[in-house]
């Protein structure tokens, strides 16, 4: 159990999600980077719940790649992610928080308030990501066959117990 939930938020957004965005070559931290960051919180309940649902970092990345391929196909572009040049990570780049990450953070704050305690922990952040009805993460999880409602219920229980 994490004792400093505020530190969790910083670790996810500033360290892990930013690193995921940098590796992705992205100029913004988006919800998919937050999800990848949550999966990297070693020893956390949140990462364990993701892994139990079939969402390790590699599995999340594969689901995001499938979503990208499908989105391109809808636009008439048939290509596999593996055929694209790999992004050039720039450790000096400081991605800013993007719109989907901001919306996830807002939902995380709402969940923290609704579930008691008020402080935002990693489980609240995962709830904020899972609660998105639209967007890249929602499409990727659906394509991967993830039961978001069941995962959300397990994460909400952990959040209510203060186990992040």
SSE layout and pairing:
Layout: H1 5-24, E1 28-29, H2 31-39, H3 45-52, H4 57-74, E2 96-97, H5 99-114, H6 122-130, H7 136-143, H8 148-160
Parallel strand pairs: 1-2
Helix pairs in contact: 1-2, 2-4, 2-5, 2-6, 3-8, 4-7, 5-6, 6-8
Keywords: Repeat
Protein name: ClpA/ClpB-like protein
Domain Clp R: 3-163
What does the model show?
By secondary structure, this protein is an all-alpha fold. The protein has a single domain (5-160), classed as Orthogonal Bundle (Double Clp-N motif), CATH 1.10.1780.10. The protein has helices at residues 5-24, 31-39, 45-52, 57-74, 99-114, 122-130, 136-143, 148-160; strands spanning 28-29, 96-97. A two-stranded parallel sheet has the order 1-2. Helix 1 packs across helix 2 (31-39), helix 3 (45-52) packs antiparallel against helix 8 and helix 5 (99-114) packs across helix 6. It starts with a helix and ends with a helix. The mean pLDDT is 89.
Sum this structure up briefly:
The protein is mainly alpha-helical and 164 residues long. The chain has helices spanning 5-24, 31-39, 45-52, 57-74, 99-114, 122-130, 136-143, 148-160, and strands at residues 28-29, 96-97.
Helix content estimate: 55-70%
Largest sheet: 2 strands, parallel
Strand order of the largest sheet: 1-2
Q: Return the string of H and E elements.
A: HEHHHEHHHH
Question: Can you tell me the CATH superfamily?
Answer: Clp, N-terminal domain
* Global geometry: globular
Q: What fold name goes in the CATH topology slot? A: Double Clp-N motif
CATH architecture: Orthogonal Bundle
- The helix tally amounts to 8
Beta strand count: 2
CATH class: Mainly Alpha
What class, by secondary structure content?
A: mainly alpha
Spans where pLDDT lies below 50 across 5 or more residues: none
Rg from Cα: 15 Å
Domain module count: 1
Chain-averaged pLDDT: 89
Distance between the termini: 6 Å
Strand percentage lies at under 5%
């Amino acid at each position: 159990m994490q004792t400093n939930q505020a530190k969790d938020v910083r670790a996810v957004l500033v360290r892990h999600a930013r690193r995921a965005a940098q590796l992705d070559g992205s100029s913004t931290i988006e919800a998919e980077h937050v999800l990848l960051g949550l999966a990297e919180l070693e020893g956390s309940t949140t990462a364990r719940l993701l892994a139990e649902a079939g969402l390790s970092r590699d599995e999340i990345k594969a689901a995001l790649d499938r979503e990208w391929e499908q989105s391109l196909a809808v636009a008439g572009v048939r290509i596999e992610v593996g055929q694209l040049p790999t992004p050039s990570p720039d450790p000096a780049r400081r991605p800013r928080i993007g719109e989907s990450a901001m919306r996830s953070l807002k939902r995380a704050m709402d969940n923290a308030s609704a579930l008691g305690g008020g402080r935002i922990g990693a489980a609240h952040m995962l709830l904020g990501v899972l609660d998105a009805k639209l967007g890249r993460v929602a499409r990727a999880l659906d394509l991967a066959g993830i039961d978001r409602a069941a995962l959300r219920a397990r994460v909400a229980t952990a959040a209510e117990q203060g186990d992040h």
